[in-house]
Amino acid sequence: MSALKTEFAGDRGDLFQLAFRTGLLTVVTFGLYRFWQTTRFRRWYWSSVRPGGTPMEYTGTGQEKLIGFLFAIILLAIYLALFNALAMLAAIFTSQGASAFLIYGLTLAPLSLIPIIFVARYRARRYILSRSRWRGIRFAMSPGAWGYAWRACLYGLLVLLSFGLLLPLRTFQLEKYLTDRSWFGTARFTQFGHFGQLYGPVIPFLLCLYGTVAMMVYGVLNSNWRQIGTDPNGMPLFDVSGTTWPFLAIYPAGLLILLFAAYYRVASFRIMASMKTLGDGLEFDIHPRTRSLVRIHILGGILTGVASGLAAALILALAFGVMAAVGVTSSDLAENPPVTLIVLTSAMAVMLILVFYNVFRQLFLTFPMVRHVAETLEIHEPELLETIRQRDREDTRDAGGFADALDVGAAF
């Protein structure tokens, strides 16, 4: 069986220059350039991933993303205004007053955004696919954002009611919904398999989760809680004696839950990717290693933190040096602080620190993770690619703007 392997041609030096340069432009433009920054990141990563030696292409633009973001902000503002108006009317008709309106607004408004978040994720994925090409053929995704949203909410509720037992069902059905509506040219992707195949990877996560909950319940029931007073806000303070080991074990247990959750996410992705087909039978094989991804995440997080900390120290030292150069001494800061200079210098220092944090995160986290996943991709029966034809360019007006506005589902 013939197969196309995938190369990753990206270089960290080039990525550093791109991340630093676009980061500075984002700071100078007070965040406006971030739409172009995201676009340039995508173009760089797409061109670095080369199945069969042919690079991917990303054709989206920063202008599209900016217009889509503004469009999404306007619609979200109208949506929340209407929701709050309905909450106010409900408070008036039930004669519960302004306090009830505040309760409705503060508690129900965030909940009302949950389906919008899933809509945003779907539309962001659709936009990214519509602007992605390989071998000159466009990817695409059929409309269906609201169908995805109500399914995500329904399956999420089932997961809660089943205490997590139906998590594989949610994972599989949502991925199948996304896959079955995705296209490469005139060929459609299809997700085969069954959610029962995901129970193997999820069992360690569920056992650890149930064990942690049982441990905490045991600790609460077998401990002595004695109130010893109240804090300045009037909340009661307790002294706990008796069985306290479960409360100490919560930290390693929480770490295990995170590790098993990462294992499930990678393993389920690998299993479902192996059961995808394109068109008349073109198959994929992608096998990222959980141990490698966890190691990249841990080591990359440490390196990002250390490098960002060193950069922050140098930037703060430079900021104090600038103030000293213009004649601001420590006694001036204490007796008659130049507020304007301090605010401007501090703001620039904070923005530069964020720039360097993003640069190091790209270098030590995103870059190695994308490279590892990309290099495990194989395409089987590649001769079937010759039967696929081009499709028309789709107009996705929001350009992932809702995902940008809600800060969800936007890659890189």
From TrEMBL:
Pfam families xref list: DUF898
Residues that span the membrane, as ranges: 15-36, 66-93, 99-120, 198-221, 245-266, 298-327, 339-360
Classification via InterPro entries: DUF898
Key words, A-Z: Membrane, Transmembrane, Transmembrane helix
Name of the protein: DUF898 family protein
Organism the protein comes from: Rhodophyticola porphyridii
